[in-house]
Amino acid sequence: MNELFTKLWSREWVRRTVLVLLTLMALVSLVQGIRNAVEFSQDFQWDAAKAFTMRINPYDESMHPGGIPDAYGFGDYYLQMEANQFPSLLMLLIPYTFLPPLAARYAWIVSNLLFTAGIVFLLRKTFLRTADKDIYAVFMLLMIAGTPYRNQLGVGQHTLFAFFFFLLAVWSDTQKDRRAAFAGTVLCLFVCYFKYTLTVPLCLYFVYRKRYAQIAVSVFMHVILTAVSAWWLGDSFINMLIKPLKVSSALAAEGGLDFGALLGGSPFAYVLAFAVMVFLLILSVMLGRMKQMQDKNDSDNAAYERMMNDPAGNELISVLILWSLIITYHRTYDFFVMVTVLAFYLAKERSLFLKTGYGVVTVAVFFGLRLFSESIPSKIVVGILYYAFTLTVTGIVVSGLLKDMK
Fold first, then answer.
1. Please, are residues 51 and 229 in contact by the beta-carbon 8 Å criterion?
2. Which of 357, 309, 274, 325 is nearest to 130 (CA)?
3. How many Cα neighbours within 13 Å face the side chain of 346?
């Protein structure tokens, strides 16, 4: 079967036909996503950021609505404030608050389209740099054609924003000018926490890379801004942490395939998420140690080449991507980042079974759930496939690590 696929894919007319069909699908999806975004973009949180600039506590308004949006003239576009971002992150949206709500919505749509282009560019520069150009094009077109991306764009979510800056941080860290690399990585990490439910697990990649100082500085910047926000809103520092979590916790059981949705919002979901994060941290540290041992006797150029062609890093980011989408609340619109798991197949040659498994899971998430309107039975079936695939990939990476340690 592997040989048959290779023979078929080697024929130019097959590749061109697939790319043309996917291009048409991606264009239709993109147009519909933009149309939805013009009409909705309800997750943008312009209203929360606007309230913040006016020294109105957006978290109190979210938990106990008092008609603030209507009173200040932007209730026509944002019917219910839902400030679930920490204030230091909400501040990143302040530039959009200089625009009226509808104009800000259009600006956010354009921004998300630019972030999309940036993601396509940066994946090619980082984790997927060794992919065959046609295979790469297929996955990028699949990403845009899929329901998760279309819904991400349509509801004005923040994952495109955060994932772009995470990839920019990864790319910045590869620059040979180490001072510029440090500054760029810190700044991009600082911004990428905007969708912390996704990017905090992904930032364990920087633990693997032993970029402890960059992580510490980027987090400390948020500590400082949180203190500034507490002063600005006349609230306590602790409340600036607790109140956003209270707003977001109301959605704990409403995700797609995550632990919270699986366990009906049970507190045990948080315990399980913590346990998985500890495991991922240990895995990242151990893989980092193995990499350090391999780099120990390399010249500077050899170490740089290893960094740019890093099988262990590709395997780790694939594991982190898969788990990040299920350990905390995520609706299925965040799953477009699954295309990054192609990195797992670039690290080493994989069996047909593993390749088929990735294809089935990706198609099921990108198209199957929508086909069945994300009904409970469809979520159960896709969830089983997704969890089985995630455990399989994780098991392969762990077993490879244990083998290398012997």
1. no
2. 309
3. 25
DSSP of 287-345 = HHHHHHHHHTT--HHHHHHHHHS-HHHHHHHHHHHHHHHHHS---GGGGGGGGGGHHHH
**DSSP symbol at 57:** -
Tokens of residue 22, six digits: 């996917």
CA–CA distance, 260 with 239 (Å, rounded to integer): 24
Alpha-carbon gap, residue 76 to 280, rounded angstroms: 44
SS (H, E, C) 176-197: CCHHHHHHHHHHHHHHHHHHHH
pLDDT digits 0-9 by tens, 320-345: 999 999 999 999 999 999 999 999 99
Q: DSSP 3-state assignment of 146?
A: coil
Pull the structure tokens for residue 88. Answer: 């230091």
Q: Are 56 and 68 in contact (CB under 8 A)?
A: yes
Residues in the chain: 406
Instruction: Tell me the per-residue pLDDT of 380-390, one tens digit each, with 9 for 90 and over.
Output: 999 999 999 99
